[in-house]
Amino acid sequence: MGKIDRREFLRRAGILAVTTAGLGIVGDDLLDVLQEAEAATKPTLSVASGSGVETMVKKAIDGIGGIGKFVKKGQSVVIKPNLAWARTPEQAANTNPQVIKALINLCKSAGASRITVIDHTCDNASASFEMSGAKDAVAGTGARLLSADKKFMFRQISIPKGKLLKSDDCAREILDADVFINVPIAKVHGGAVMTASMKNLMGANFDRQNWHRLGLDQCIADYSTAVKPNLIVLDAIRILLTNGPKGPGKTKDCGQIIAGTDPVAIDAYAAKLLGLDPTEVKYISLAADHGLGQINLSKVNIKKA
Amino acid sequence: MTRTIRRISQLLFFGLFLWLIYKTAYPLNSAIPVDFLTRLDPLVALVAAISSRTFVAGMATALIIAVLTVLLGRVFCGWICPLGTTLDASDKLFFRKARRNVPKNLHSLKYFILIGILVSAVFTAQAAYLLDPLSLLTRTVTLVFVPPVQMVFRWLQEAFYVLSGSQFGLLASIGTRLSDALGSWQFLSGQQLYFRQALLVLAVFVAIISLNSISRRFWCRNLCPLGALLGLLSHVPILKRVVTNDCIDCGRCVVDCKMGAIPRNPRLTASSECIECFDCVPICPKKAESFRLRLKPAINSETRLDLPRRRVLQGAGVGLAFAAMVKIDPGRKHALSGSSNIKLSSSQLIRPPGAVEESKFVTLCTRCGQCMKACPTNGLQPAIHEAGLEGFWTPILVPRIGCCQQDCNACGQVCPTDAIQPFKVEDKPHIFIGTAVIDRSMCIAWNSGKTCLVCDEYCSYKAIKWEADETGIRRPFVDDTICVGCGICESACPVQPVAAIRVYSLGDKRGS
Predict the structure, then answer these.
(1) Greater model confidence, A22 or B508
(2) Same domain, B176 and B206
(3) Measured between beta carbons, which residues in chain A are less than 8 angstroms from residue B463?
């Protein structure tokens, strides 16, 4: 141990004194402070129900600060619905087209400079866009509907926090947009047990097969550490309870739109709607382990909008 | 004048030919049936009917050309046939300076080929597809020329897409506009097409073009079996070439005739060889030549079709040999019991939905490739060995390349010979073309302790069932009463290089 001169001694003594004093002040109040801090960081989900898709979407987003909080005038917006399958809106395999349309209109009202609706579909893109109703929903709004199905539309990203997935690709439109809005639908899912917001990002990358080879659940969680939507709007107007994700299967009319920014909380909420325990959906637990959000819904501020 | 009109006709029909191939795409939205030109082909009609022993209703339109030929001669060859036009054009492009001497005619060779093809057909072997001009050219354009053209437009789209990411607003918006327009263009909206066997198909085409270096329209003169069939029909046409007494025997027409249809005595015409191009009329220095409609055969003005009996017998012999070669192919042998659609040549012989029973299919199919062009997933490919020798180049579904898409019935709508019959999309859950089988030793869910179930995810008909094992891993099973063999599972399976779930022909229920 080195010699300590007077100046160093005084410095260390000072630090010790201040620290001790600080702890003394906190004392009994420590618990209160921590609770307050937690309340401040407690994620909020805004749940709108009722009828009228357009008003529900607006009410839900208003509950977390309104669209103006997320989309500023002149910003470019990318909307990523789930349009994976050549299925009709009634079959609840894709995001409800009215939700897409309502969101486009909200973004327009907030002054978005350009709006792109994008997906890398599983079935043939033109069939999926047509049958899902997305093509009609986007037509005439001024937004573009883009099928991200070609390699050149993607850019490599690194995923430093990824445990299995260290790097992947992501649609250029999403990476370059000012605002990224994820608009999933809640469905059960064969491989991932269920799908909502984080699983929907599998349509933002190009090579999906790789996730299955590496380990699907971990890859879903890993990808969400790198690709983070600014806003998530969950379509739970009608959800798919069996034969997911493509259906056709049993559906349930929940009549809800949920807005939030915490992907784990959103997916946990979706799990509840689907009759599942969020902690038993492996990818949600793994995402919570990554610190991506709150899996415990009792610690989530669920606001009726 | 007539030459100009003829060229316009040739160009119009060639344009129509290319347009119909372009329109052979999913979803079909062509005002004219895309197989219209092939349905006009009497050779395809005749051989399909004879070799399959069925009346092909859709090919009845070929009678139009047959009747036209009886009346007016081989106008089809001179005015309509897209391969004839291709040869005329390539002549102008590549062979202008070549050829000085008048070549010896080999006219009878094409009759010899035709007889061979017909004899094969009698012994239920389809051989017309090899040399029928419409099948051959449609196949060549589809399999060889469409993919690279598509690729060039893809590159263009990529270039515009890169531009759309530009920092400069104007460039970016131009790029966005153009790349979006190309991306939503039907020609580019499906998979990038590519076809195996394309080089071999091209080689046949190149060979036919190259023969022009020996003489103009060498193919049409000497080899084309459709030309031969039409030649037989136009032995005594009403439309006749008439030469007046002003003829001075200069022989210009003899040398100039691209079909070699004018013998040494220029007053004579080999009607079966004349394609009614009328090029001899303007070049005659004495204006002695004309084409007139005459019912009565003008005495001595036509040369007889000369078919030496030996040649006929040789042709028949070759046809018989071809049929025999096809029939003794061991790959043709059916599995010992069960469906006759299952062959030993391949366990993955998957036919498009709507395909007729296998023995009929290989005789009806004229290998024009239109179903392959229409298939949006690029899954339909020309068979190499999978269907045996008799099924060479017939369409098979290769699910690893592309599946049979649930909402598509394009292949059934474009087949000229009804080898693939029209079917409704709603009927697809009942059209069994194969069965998926899981290879558990490769399957991620069965073998590696990871979750996967991509097959279940993609399955359009919900034919995959799963059960969770003790650790919670869900493992897939195929319900073979539901699985139709569309192959979407095989195309999406993440296992490499071969899928862990594969479609086999065991569930093929054609003709039952």
Answers:
(1) B508
(2) no
(3) none
* Radius of gyration from C-alpha coordinates of chain A: 22
Residues 6+ apart with CB under 8 A from B442: B495, B498, B500
Do B263 and B207 have their domain in common?
A: no
Task: Judge if B55 and B125 occupy the same domain.
Answer: yes
Tell if the CB–CB gap between B176 and A144 is shorter than 8 Å. yes
On whether both B17 and B91 belong to a single domain, the answer is yes
Give the count of domains, chain B.
5
Chain A partners of B157 at a C-beta cutoff of 8 Å?
150
User: Distance (Å) from the C-alpha of residue B483 to the closest C-alpha of chain A?
Assistant: 15
**How wide is the angle at C-alpha B203 spanned by C-alphas B197 and B205, nearest 5°?**
110
CB contacts, 8 Å: A216 with chain B: 450-452
Nearest to B430 by CA among B457, B397, B465, B461: B461
In terms of residue numbers, what domain contains B136? 1-144+195-235
ipTM score assigned to the predicted complex = 0.88
Question: In this complex, do A213 and B406 lie within 8 Å of one another by their Cβ atoms?
Answer: no
Other C-beta atoms closer than 10 Å to the C-beta of B169 total 9
Give the pLDDT of residue A1: 45
Which pTM was predicted? 0.90
* % of chain B at pLDDT higher than 70: 96
| Probe site for chain B from A246, A276, A280, A283 (most B CB atoms < 10 A) | A246
> Using the 8-state DSSP alphabet, how is residue B131 labeled?
H
Q: Could you give the CA distance from residue A135 to residue A78 in angstroms, rounded to a whole number?
A: 16
Tell me the H-state helices in B288-399: 309-327, 358-364, 370-374
Last residue of a domain, one of B370, B404, B425: B425
B162 domain residue, yes or no: yes
Residues in B touching A211 (Cβ below 8 Å): 494
Rounded to whole angstroms, the Cα distance separating B27 from B408 reads 7
Q: Which of A191, A213, A282 sits opposite B457 (nearest CB)?
A: A191
Nearest-CA residue of chain A relative to B155? A152
Are B87 and B175 contained in the same domain? no
Residue B496 contacts A, CB cutoff 8 Å: yes
Instruction: Inspect the interface and report whether the beta carbons of B407 and A86 lie closer than 8 Å.
Output: yes
pLDDT at res. A14: 66
What is the mean pLDDT of the segment spanning B239-245? 88
Name the token pair of A176: 């370059």
Q: Which of residues 163-222 of B touch A (CB under 8 A)?
A: 165, 176, 180, 183, 189-190
* Closest Cα in chain A to B173: A114
Query: What is the Cβ-side half-sphere exposure of residue B473, based on CA atoms within 13 angstroms?
Result: 15
> Is residue B317, in this structure, part of any structural domain at all?
no
Distance from CA of B437 to the nearest CA of A (A): 18
Q: Which tokens is B45 given?
A: 């009609």
Same domain, B258 and B382: no
Whether B260 maps to a domain, the answer reads: yes
Partner residue facing B180 (CB), from A144, A190, A249: A144
Asked if B296 and B287 touch (Cβ cutoff 8 Å), the reply is no
In a domain, B84, yes or no: yes
In angstroms, the Cα distances linking B248 to B274, B286, B289, B464 are 21, 8, 11, 83
